[in-house]
Every structure is written in C-alpha cells, then in structure tokens.
Amino acid sequence: MPVLIDTHTHLDAAEFDADRDAVIGAARAAGVRTMIVLAIDAANFATVRELARSRPGIVYALGIHPIYVERSRDEDLAVLRKEIEASLDDPRFVAIGEIGLDHFVPGLDHERQLRFYIAQLEMAREFELPALLHIRRAQDAILKQLRRLRPPGGIAHAFNGSEQQAGQFVELGFALGFGGAMTWPRALRIRRLAATMPGEALVLETDSPDIPPVWLGDRRNAPVELPRIACELAALRQLAPDAIAELTTANVLRILPRLAGML
Prior knowledge:
- The protein is α/β, with parallel strands linked by helices.
- The chain contains 9 helices and 8 strands.
C-alpha cells in the first residue's frame, strides 16, 4: 500500500470531537501514514501539541492564522516564540503554521494580518523552520515578504494563483498543496496547475474538515479521503497512483525535513 502524507489538517476541530480516534484510524488504515495538524491561534497551541503526542501518525505546526489575528493579542506573538522554543526538541513539531494573509473574507484588518505574517516569517527564518502558508487572494503580497525575508521554504496551502505566481513560489523553495478543490471539474485553473506544474512542486492535503472533494459535496472532509484525492491527481498527470504517492511523500520530506525522523 502506498504511503501518503496529509500536509494540512485541523483534526483538533470540534467537528471531530465525536469520532476523532476513528477518523485517525481510518486514515492510517487507508495508507495516510502522517497527518500534519496546524494551529490557528494561541488558544490551540497546547491542543495540537497534545493531539500529536497522544495519537499515532500526527505531527503539528504552530502559528497564528490570518483570519484569527483579530481575536489574537499582540502579546500572542511572544507566546508563539516561547512555544516554538519549547517545541524544538519535539520531533513531532515540523513547521510554523498556519500563517499568511487572507484578502478574501470581507472586513478583515489587512494591516494587522501583514504585521502578524511578517513577525511569523521572521521566526521561521530565525529558527530555520518551514512555513505553512494560507493564501487567499493575496499571492503577490505573500510573495513580496517571502522574497524579502527568505524563510527556508514550506507549503503554499490550497494554492489557487496563476501559473506565473506558482512558479515564483516554487523558485522560493515552496511546494503547492493540492486537495479537495482540485477534484471539482469547474476548478479549471487548479486542475491545470495540478496537471502541469513540475512534479517536485506537488504535495497533497485535505484541510479537513474543510474543502471537501466533489464526492463529499458539503459533508465533512477527513484525511481518509486523501488516497482518492491522490488518484485524482494521478489521473490529471497520467501517472499511476503509487507514483503520485511516492512523489508527493518525497516532496514533503524534502520540504519538511524534521518530519523525516518520524517515518
């Protein structure tokens, strides 16, 4: 059975409270060897760490999500720094995330988002940790700071930019995350990127419980869907599913080197 890595999940979310262990077990039985759970704000730093320490196949990232900077205190950036320092000896801690910019949701404070994003990119550079990026209608603003601060690569989650922007992320050492959105026939740009980008640019994700694939409709997404998502990517690239599993797993281990010790 091919080994797959879900590079973006939120298994600590309330949507999984009733059956979290069953969800994790089903994913691992289906070949999803590792699932990366990303923090969204200081309130769940301890939650994602404990989830990773108490369940097989779970690793974690720490960061403050752009949508949640408005409910975060300025002091939470100092809290994040302390949490990163305290986690450096934990092999389950693999990246800074989920961080970035969101210019899609109306009414958000873009200046505050940018300040938190820059501060967290500086931490990624300082601690030599990859960054797991949230990018909604903010590709150029994200890229501007990546060029300036040069963190050690990472993943552009749920990528939906242009081919030119995709190439710029790859040149900066980032992989592109493809998941449920790619499976919808109307997602022409995402599907074209998935089919044509260099193989070393591709990683797989679910963003569970969000961004469900087409076969789920609006139902809850989960890491167990990753093998079928991988098959969709394989079909777009005219490759065997096992080849996609091997390729994307190798890419994740290159982009997130701390993860290699957990496999």
